[in-house]
Amino acid sequence: MSLSMFKASVPVFTRQLANLSAILHKAEAHAAARKIDPAVFINARLAPDMFPLSRQVQSASDSAKGCAARLAGVEIPSYADTETTFPELQARIGKTVAFLQSLGPELIDGSEERAIVLKLRGQETKFSGQYYLLNFALPNFFFHAVTAYDILRHNGLEIGKQDFLGSF
After folding, report:
1. For residue 74, which of 98, 51, 102 has the smallest C-alpha distance?
2. pTM above the 0.85 mark?
3. pLDDT digits (tens, 9 = 90+) for 88-107
4. What gap in Å lies between CA 69 and CA 75, rounded to an integer?
5. What are phi and psi of 117, to 5 degrees?
6. Phi and psi of 126, rounded to 5°?
7. CB contact at 8 A, 129 and 5
8. Across-strand partners of 148?
9. Which of 49, 108, 136, 142 could bridge 6 with an S-S bond, Cβ 3.0-4.6 Å?
10. What are the pLDDT digits (tens) for 105-156?
11. Considering Cα of 87, then 89, then 92, then 97, what sign does the dihedral take?
């Protein structure tokens, strides 16, 4: 049996967003226990030219909801990107997961050949649905999720690979 487009997308996104949410809860508790202003973590970045934690979480959210919506052929929800606190980032993740859960397999399965057109660096780039999911959307999503993890780990949060992967 082949792997469906739905199974390769929505459950993968929702699982990793749940893991990211758990990591953010640990970061918030860590900041409180050590009397660190949470903004230190929210605004932290790995390198001067990289986005801060808040934008990494927003970008992971955008990647997940954008991919699922494009594959389903529905409008992508627009979020304002104004989150500056852990509770706001958690709410962002919650909204994203709720949107993902609203899309059933009947909307996404069969999207392997759906034309996906993105504007990248000022140019239109065309993908088939399957190529877009496997070679653009999933790598982009995981890049932002792991960068959020790395920012927090770099800043002293005691997390490990199992936190990123979650429980099985």
Report:
1. 102
2. yes
3. 999 999 999 999 999 999 99
4. 6
5. -120, 125
6. -110, 135
7. yes
8. none
9. 108
10. 999 999 999 999 999 889 999 999 999 999 999 999 999 999 999 999 999 9
11. negative
Write out the residue range of the structural domain in which residue 152 sits: 10-165
Separation of CA 128 from chain center: 21
Q: Which residues pair with 123 in a beta bridge?
A: 120
Is there a domain that residue 137 lies in? Answer: yes
CA-CA distance, 61 to 145, in Å (whole number)?
Answer: 9
Q: What's 59's domain CATH number?
A: 1.20.120.450
Which letter does DSSP use for residue 42 in this model? H
Position 104 in a domain: yes
Handedness of CA 154, 87, 82, 124 (dihedral sign): positive
Q: Cα separations (Å) of 54 from 94, 127, 147?
A: 15, 29, 11
Number of domains comprising the chain: 1
